[in-house]
Specification:
The chain is mainly β. The chain contains two helices and eleven strands; from the N terminus they run αβαββββββββββ. The protein has one domain (29-185).
Length: 186
């Protein structure tokens, strides 16, 4: 009887402690993930995989919200984390070539230095970092210049996705009226 009473008191105490736990508010820039091939996890559970998973990008999706994005929110000629919150992470499941340079399979952080006409995409080996505050150029694996393509449609939330090509895929980055492609060869 004593053990049962102690168990009940313990459960009530635990329940009241859990009720007081304050959960963080919903993030204004939710985290998202894109795979190559597109929708890989869904295809996997549906037994519809036609090619192996080759890459994944994890990033946060800031919103335009009526702001001027490029040149103001994302300052020109400064290192940007390619999204919001945690720095964007690229995971490669096999060795690839980017701009003719062999990149070994593994996890990397993506950054960009934006101008009106081009972005310098940076692949860096320092992972699990927030923002670009501790960006260390000495850990760069490669840098690739990518031309800015102006779009007529506005992309409200920063978006990244893979688009299949004959030699691999383009990692597409779009926000506001801008789109940039990073070619990845498998």
């Amino acid at each position: 009887m004593k053990k049962c009473l102690l168990l009940i008191v313990g459960l009530i105490t635990l329940n009241s402690l859990m009720a007081q736990l304050k959960l963080p508010p919903v993030d204004k820039s939710p985290m998202d993930m894109a795979y190559y091939p597109n929708n890989y996890p869904v295809l996997k559970i549906q037994d519809k995989i036609t090619e192996p998973v080759l890459g994944r990008v994890i990033y946060s999706r800031p919103q335009k919200n009526g702001r001027t994005v490029f040149g103001e929110l994302v300052e020109y000629n400064k290192v940007w984390r390619l999204g919001a919150n945690e720095a964007t992470e690229l995971e490669l499941y096999k060795d690839v070539k980017i701009n003719g340079k062999k990149i070994k399979k593994g996890r990397y952080t993506l950054y960009a230095i934006c101008t009106e006409s081009k972005w310098t995409i940076i692949i860096n080996k320092d992972t699990d970092t927030w923002g670009a505050f501790k960006y260390d150029e000495t850990k760069d694996v490669t840098r690739v210049d990518a031309d800015v393509q102006k779009q007529t449609d506005i992309t409200e939330a920063f978006t990244m996705m893979f688009d299949k090509t004959t030699t691999g895929a383009n990692l597409i980055m779009a926000w506001d009226d801008v789109k940039v492609n990073l070619p990845i060869n498998f």
